[in-house]
Design goal:
By secondary structure, this protein is of the alpha+beta class. Helices cover 45% and strands 11% of the residues. The strands form ten sheets. The protein has a four-stranded mixed β-sheet. It has a two-stranded antiparallel ribbon with strand order 1-2. Strands 3-4 form a two-stranded antiparallel ribbon.
Length: 726
C-alpha cells in the first residue's frame, strides 16, 4: 500500500528515490495540501546542508528550521559569515532568502550595532533589527510587552474572524458553527498556550484578562445562534460561569470539548516544558555553578516551579480524585506518576540533569491536561451540590444527576456529529438548540410549574420530560387514547442502529431479531426460567420490563398495536462471531434506564465502590438483565447492553463494543481493511449511539412542551440582549 501511494502521488516526470527500491518520476512537485510535501522539503534541504558541511563548519552556532522558516543563534563574530553561507547554499538549490522577512534580535544599543566588532555592515543585510523580540514558527519570544502585544494582535484577528462568521450565518448553521469553533477556531490557541506562561494570559484586556476574553469570544460565538431568548430570559451570571467551565471539559467528563485558555494554559505550558526541558537547556551549553544558580533563580524558571507547585497542591487535596480516578490518570502510579512529574518541576523546573533526562520525550502535556480536566469536573460537580450535603440533597438534584451521568464514554459524543445534515444527525436545527441546552445543563423553563399533561404540581421541567407518564399518547383503533413509555421507541432505535453498524464489522454476522433465549441457550437446571405467563393475563404488568417492552392494554401493545403472543424471555439481536476458533453466538439484550425516575435516584449519584462522581445506573440496568439471563447456560454470551437515559454506558456494553471492534491478537488479526477503518467504524458507532440517546431526550421535552417566548410572551421579565460578561 505505501509504495503504491507514493507512486500514485508523485508519478510525474522526474526521478525521486524514496529508498528501499521505491522510485518514481516527478515533474511539477507534490500536490497542493499533501502532508508529505513539507517533510520532503525538510529532508532535501537538511541533507544538502549536511553534505556541504554547514553543521560541521558552524558547530558553535545553533541552527533551527521549521520548513521554510529558519532561525540561528551565533556568537557575534560568526553571525554574518553564517548568514552569507546560508544564502550561498540556498541559491545553489534554487532558493532565496526573503529580505523583507529577515530579522535580527539584538540585545544592545541598536543605534550603534554596526560599531560592534563582527557586525559591521549588518544593516546592509536587513534594517529590521529589534531588541524586543521576534516570532519564529508562529511562537513569539522576547520581553513580556512584545509577547502580550503579539497575543493581543491574535485576539483581534480571532474576534474579527468570529464576527465575520456570525455575520455570514444564520440559525440554520448552528451545528456547523459549533464544530468550526470547536475544531478550528479554538484549536488555534493550544499552540500558543504551550509556549506562553500564564502571567501573559492574565494581562488586563478590555476590562478582563486576555485568557478570559478569548474564552468569552469562543462561548459567545457558539451561543449567538443557540438563542436562549427564544425560550426564556438571558442566562444568569451563575449559568454563564457554569457554561465557561463545561466548555473546557472533555466530552467524557460531561463537557463540550472546546479548547479553553483560562483553565488549561498552565497544564499546556508545564507539559511542553517537561517534554523539552533537556533540549532547551542543552542549547545554553555548559554552565558554571554560578550560571546554573542564576538560571534556577530566573523569573521564567521560578514561574514554572511555582505553577507546578500550585497544581501539585490542588491534586494532593483529600477529595481531589476518587481512588478509581487516581488510578486512571496515574496520579501516584505508573512508570512516572503525575505527582512525581510535578515534584520534579517544583525543583527548579527540572533543570537538574537527572530529572530532565527522565522527562525527555514524554507525553506530559496530555497527562497533566487529563488530570486537570478531571479535577475541574469534580470541583464543578461539588459546586452543584456539596459532597457533605448528604445523600438526600444529592439524589434530589436533577442537574447533579444529569452531569454525573454525562461523565461517560458515550453521553456527549453526539456533539461530534452536530455539524452533519439533519438526516445524519437525526436532529433538525431547532432540535440541535434544545439538545445543546439539555447537554449544557440549562433549564429552558426557569420556574417550576404545573405539568399540563399529568397535572403534577409543581415540576422541574429539566427532569420531568423523562418521567411524565402522560406526555406521550397514541389513539388506538377503538379510538381510545393510550399513553406509552419513552422506552419502546428508544429501544427500537438502538436496535435498528446496531443492526446497521454491526453488519459492517468483519467476522460478525447479525443472524436474528428478537430471538428467544431457549432457541440459543439451554435452561439452567439449577436456576430454571419461570413459567411463561398466558397472554390472557397480559394486563398483569409485573412481567413487563419497562425499558424492554411497551405498555400493554387488554393484551395489546399500546405503542405499535402488535400482539404479544409469547411471553418467553427474548433478546433483541443475535450475532455470531467467527474471529475465534469456533463460531460464538451472542445475544444482545438492550435496556435504557431513566436517569430522573425516582426509583433510580440512588443509583445515579454514587458509582461502583462508592465513587461519588460516577453513576452506576447503567450498570444497575445490566445487573437486572444478568439476573434474568442467569436462568440460561450462556457462558457469558448473553449481554445486558445497558445505558441510562443521559447517555451513560454500562461496563458489559462497553466491553462488548471493545470486543467486537478489537484489532485482534498478533497471531489472530481480524480482517479489517485497515487500522484507520477499524477506528473510524468504532467512532461512528459510538457517535451515532450517543445521537440516538440524545434525540430521545429532545423528544422528551417536545412531548412535554417547548416554551416559545416569541409566541407566548416572556416567561419572566428579562433584560435586552447583552454581550457575555468576561
Amino acid at each position: 500500500m505505501y509504495p503504491n501511494f507514493l507512486i500514485q502521488q508523485y508519478s510525474i516526470d522526474a526521478e525521486v528515490d524514496f529508498g528501499q527500491g521505491i522510485k518514481t518520476q516527478m515533474k511539477t512537485g507534490t500536490q497542493q495540501g499533501c502532508k508529505t510535501s513539507p517533510h520532503l522539503f525538510d529532508a532535501v534541504v537538511h541533507s544538502y546542508l549536511k553534505d556541504k558541511g554547514l553543521f560541521t563548519e558552524f558547530a558553535d552556532c545553533q541552527i533551527n528550521a521549521i520548513h521554510d522558516d529558519m532561525i540561528f543563534r551565533a556568537p557575534i563574530r560568526r553571525a554574518i559569515p553564517l548568514f552569507r553561507r546560508l544564502v550561498q547554499l540556498f541559491a545553489e538549490i534554487g532558493l532565496s532568502v526573503n529580505e523583507d522577512k529577515t530579522q535580527v534580535l539584538f540585545r544592545g544599543n541598536i543605534a550603534r550595532i554596526e560599531e560592534v566588532e563582527g557586525l559591521e555592515g549588518i544593516k546592509e543585510i536587513t534594517s529590521n533589527i529589534t531588541g524586543d523580540g521576534m516570532v519564529f514558527g508562529g511562537i513569539p519570544f522576547g520581553n513580556d510587552r512584545f509577547i502580550s502585544d503579539y497575543v493581543i494582535s491574535k485576539v483581534v484577528e480571532y474576534e474579527d474572524l468570529s464576527n465575520r462568521m456570525l455575520a455570514n450565518s444564520t440559525g440554520r448553521n448552528v451545528g456547523s458553527i459549533f464544530s468550526i469553533v470547536r475544531f478550528c477556531l479554538s484549536a488555534k490557541w493550544p499552540y500558543l498556550m504551550r509556549s506562553i506562561s500564564s502571567h501573559i494570559w492574565d494581562t488586563e484586556y478590555q476590562g478582563s484578562t486576555l485568557g478570559k476574553y478569548i474564552d468569552s469570544v469562543t462561548l459567545n460565538t457558539i451561543l449567538r445562534h443557540m438563542d436562549i431568548t427564544q425560550y426564556r430570559q438571558e442566562l444568569s451570571d451563575s449559568e454563564l460561569d457554569s457554561l465557561h467551565i463545561r466548555m473546557g471539559l472533555k466530552l467524557k467528563n460531561g463537557g463540550l470539548g472546546i479548547h479553553s485558555v483560562t483553565d488549561y494554559c498552565d497544564s499546556a505550558m508545564l507539559g511542553m516544558w517537561a517534554t523539552n526541558a533537556q533540549d532547551i537547556l542543552s542549547l545554553l551549553g555548559p554552565l558554571s555553578d554560578t550560571e546554573k544558580d542564576s538560571l534556577q533563580h530566573s523569573r521564567s524558571i521560578t514561574h514554572i516551579s511555582d505553577t507546578a507547585r500550585t497544581m501539585k497542591t490542588r491534586f494532593a487535596e483529600d477529595n481531589a480524585f476518587t481512588p478509581a480516578q487516581a488510578m486512571d490518570i496515574g496520579l501516584r502510579s505508573g512508570k512516572l506518576s503525575t505527582m512525581e512529574l510535578l515534584t520534579m518541576l517544583t525543583k527548579h523546573a527540572a533543570t537538574d540533569n537527572d530529572d530532565n533526562r527522565k522527562l525527555k520525550g514524554g507525553k506530559h502535556q496530555g497527562k497533566l491536561r487529563s488530570a486537570l480536566n478531571l479535577y475541574i469536573a469534580n470541583r464543578y460537580a461539588d459546586s452543584i451540590v456539596r459532597p457533605d450535603a448528604g445523600v438526600a440533597a444529592r439524589k434530589c438534584n436533577p442537574y447533579l444527576r444529569a452531569f454525573i451521568a454525562q461523565r461517560s464514554l458515550t453521553a456527549n459524543r453526539w456533539l461530534n456529529r452536530i455539524h452533519r445534515d439533519k438526516r445524519a444527525r437525526l436532529l433538525t436545527d431547532a432540535d440541535v438548540k434544545i439538545a445543546f441546552w439539555i447537554t449544557a445543563g440549562i433549564n429552558l423553563i426557569v420556574v417550576d410549574r404545573k405539568c399540563s399533561r399529568c397535572k403534577m404540581d409543581p415540576v422541574n421541567w429539566f427532569e420531568h420530560g423523562q418521567v411524565c407518564k402522560k406526555s406521550r399518547k397514541r389513539r388506538q383503533d377503538d379510538n381510545q387514547v393510550k399513553y406509552f413509555a419513552r422506552s419502546w421507541a428508544l429501544h427500537k432505535s438502538i436496535q435498528i442502529l446496531m443492526n446497521e453498524c454491526l453488519a459492517k464489522i468483519p467476522d460478525v454476522n447479525v443472524t436474528e431479531q428478537n430471538p428467544k433465549f431457549l432457541d440459543t441457550f439451554l435452561a439452567n437446571p439449577e436456576n430454571p426460567p419461570p413459567p411463561s405467563k398466558d397472554s390472557d393475563n397480559s394486563d398483569d404488568q409485573n412481567h413487563v420490563d419497562e425499558e424492554m417492552e411497551p405498555r400493554i392494554h387488554r393484551g395489546r401493545v399500546v405503542a405499535d398495536g402488535t400482539l404479544m403472543e409469547d411471553k418467553r424471555l427474548k433478546s433483541d439481536i443475535k450475532i455470531i462471531t467467527t474471529f475465534e476458533e469456533q463460531p460464538v453466538p451472542i445475544l444482545i439484550d438492550i435496556t435504557v434506564a431513566t436517569t430522573h425516575a425516582v426509583s433510580h435516584h440512588p443509583h445515579t449519584i454514587k458509582g461502583t465502590n462508592g465513587d461519588i462522581y460516577a453513576s452506576k445506573l447503567a450498570d444497575y440496568g445490566a445487573h437486572l438483565k444478568d439476573k434474568k439471563h442467569a436462568h440460561y447456560l450462556h457462558d457469558g454470551n448473553a449481554i445486558g447492553f445497558a445505558f441510562d437515559s443521559m447517555g451513560g454506558i454500562s461496563k458489559p456494553a462497553k466491553d462488548l463494543i471493545d470486543h467486537l471492534y478489537a484489532r485482534g491478537e498478533q497471531e489472530k488479526r481480524r480482517r479489517w481493511d485497515s487500522e484507520t477503518m477499524r477506528v473510524a467504524l468504532k467512532k461512528e458507532f459510538l457517535d451515532r449511539l450517543s445521537m440516538v440517546l440524545c434525540i430521545h431526550r429532545v423528544y422528551d421535552f417536545k412531548f412535554l412542551g417547548i416554551p416559545n417566548m416569541r409566541a407566548q410572551g416572556a416567561q419572566l421579565a428579562h433584560p435586552p440582549h447583552r454581550t457575555l460578561r468576561h
